[in-house]
Design brief:
Layout: H1 15-27, H2 34-58, H3 64-78
């Protein structure tokens, strides 16, 4: 039965990158099947890193106190009555 939550990729990397990644995984007792997990984790971290850099750039002109107030408002809204699990009450 096919797994509908997975997608197959075909990627090309340099020979040096291939050797480095496979050596890294082997040194940690991981096997060939762990390569997909490693790549998925790396992609998620890279997306987070890029997103954070974009957000930091967009808010770079905002004073620290104003940014903290904005963040406090967002957290309060997330913890509001519509999200009782996040609420501090």
């Amino acid at each position: 039965m096919p797994n509908d939550t997975m997608t197959r990729w075909t990627v090309s990397v340099s020979k040096d990158t291939d050797i480095s990644v496979r050596s890294f995984l082997a040194q940690r007792g991981m096997n060939k099947g762990d390569l997909s997990k490693f790549i998925e984790d790396a992609v998620k971290w890279r997306i987070l890193d890029r997103t954070m850099a974009e957000v930091q750039d967009k808010f770079s002109d905002l004073a620290p106190d104003a940014l903290n107030n904005l963040l406090d408002e967002a957290v309060a809204a997330a913890r509001g009555p519509r999200h009782p699990i996040l609420s501090r009450d």
